[in-house]
Amino acid sequence: MKLQRKNRLRAVTLGAVAVSGALVLTACGSDDNAGGGGDKGNAGAASKIKCAGEGQLLAAGSTAQKNAIDQWSKDYSAACSGVTINYQANGSGAGIEAFNSGKVSFAGSDSAMKPEEVAASKKICKGGQGVNLPMLGGPIAITYNVEGVDDLVLDADTLAKIFDGKITKWNDAAIKKLNPEAKLPGSKIQAFHRSDESGTTDNLTKYLQAAAPKSWKYEPDKKWPNQSGQAADGSSGVASQVKQTAGSISYVELSYATGNEIPTAKIDTGAGEPVEASTDNASKAIAAAKVTGKGNDLAMELDYTTKAASAYPITLLTYEIACDKGNKAETLKATKSFLAYAASEQGQSSLVKLGYAPLPAEVATKVRSTVNSLS
Question: In what residue span(s) does the PBP domain sit (predicted)?
């Protein structure tokens, strides 16, 4: 297991390349930033990317998709030296806020815009509105740090009670029932959640509400809904706290768990065998998602209560949010070029080694068509 984690870590490390560049605000109706200017080393990637536009694109939002954006930006830069992409991973809520205040070309979000956010986007997208473009998916891993426990199974009801402060010891009867062979200590559970507004939190709370309605009484939200547990900023902050805190548990995108070599729990969905957090298992859940958006909006709905064999239920779809109409002329070409690459077969195929799940082919085709129609 340790060797496998080290191999995954190497893949994440190679894929996650920091994107630098001056911040120039060039967005839908304001200044914004986008990535990619540089190195010609990746000839294979460069040969298929259709470059357009020039300058810098500024984007912000989801920390869950940061490793993917870094990889896409690296590959895009190898082909398109005239464009530089700068993505600020500051959380989905902050990304949407930046988009709706006209500070970025596009925002990354781990949940679709709310109706009031769409309404606000119309002030920036002159003659249009912000639309949700699903770009990648992946499992939200339940990470833990319990000495002597390398194989942990949890279910929705137990997770709901842990994150609501109702289960406070690792040897609680509910956890022991799910793990009869494990040597569970009597130590206190140290539960961590995101301090920033996060689409990852939104997806986890959607899962808890859907799969454990009797134990989780809170509405889904990007903001953590109760006072239980401790808080940390961003995916990297949560992962760091779990790694260094004995008895801890939290939720984070799989790439952050594997990158930090933190164990992840299997989820008992009632499917017969507990389901591991993996790219393949997340893909099985995403394949059953339904498009609920209208027109150019491709917001999707996941089934958090799935009992399909090997379908991992705590899965997110993360979006790029852009104007369907009313993009600023100076950045429109570069925005479309970069997003088209991200949604391409080439861009999607680069995700697996980073712990993400590529879009189903049918959805990716719709995204490419919508990106092409942006104006």
Answer: 53-345
DSSP 8-state symbol, 187:
P
pLDDT, residue 255, reads: 87
Q: What pLDDT, on a 0 to 100 scale, did the predictor assign at position 42?
A: 41
Q: At residue 316, what are phi and psi to the nearest 5 degrees?
A: -120, 150
Residue with tokens 């119309």: 122
pTM, rounded to two decimals: 0.78
Three-state DSSP class for residue 104: coil
According to the model, what pLDDT value does residue 372 have?
A: 97
Burial of 298 (0-12, 13-18, 19+ CB in 10 A): buried
Q: Are 106 and 321 in contact (CB under 8 A)?
A: yes
Q: List the chain domain ranges.
A: 11-137+289-300+318-373, 139-284
Regions of the chain with pLDDT less than 50: 1-47
Q: What pLDDT is recorded for position 353?
A: 86
Condensed to tens digits (0 to 9), the pLDDT of residues 112-171 reads: 999 999 999 999 999 999 999 999 999 999 999 999 999 999 999 999 999 999 999 999
Tokens, residue 315: 């899965």
In CATH, what number does 139-284 get?
3.40.190.10
Annotated binding-site positions for phosphate? 62-64, 92, 110, 198-200
User: Are the C-beta atoms of residues 358 and 352 closer than 8 Å to each other?
Assistant: yes
- Cα–Cα distances in angstroms (integers) from residue 352 to residues 304, 347, 348, 366, in the given order: 22, 10, 8, 21
- Which residue ranges make up the annotated binding site? 62-64, 92, 110, 198-200
Other residues' Cβ atoms within 10 Å of the Cβ of residue 308: 16
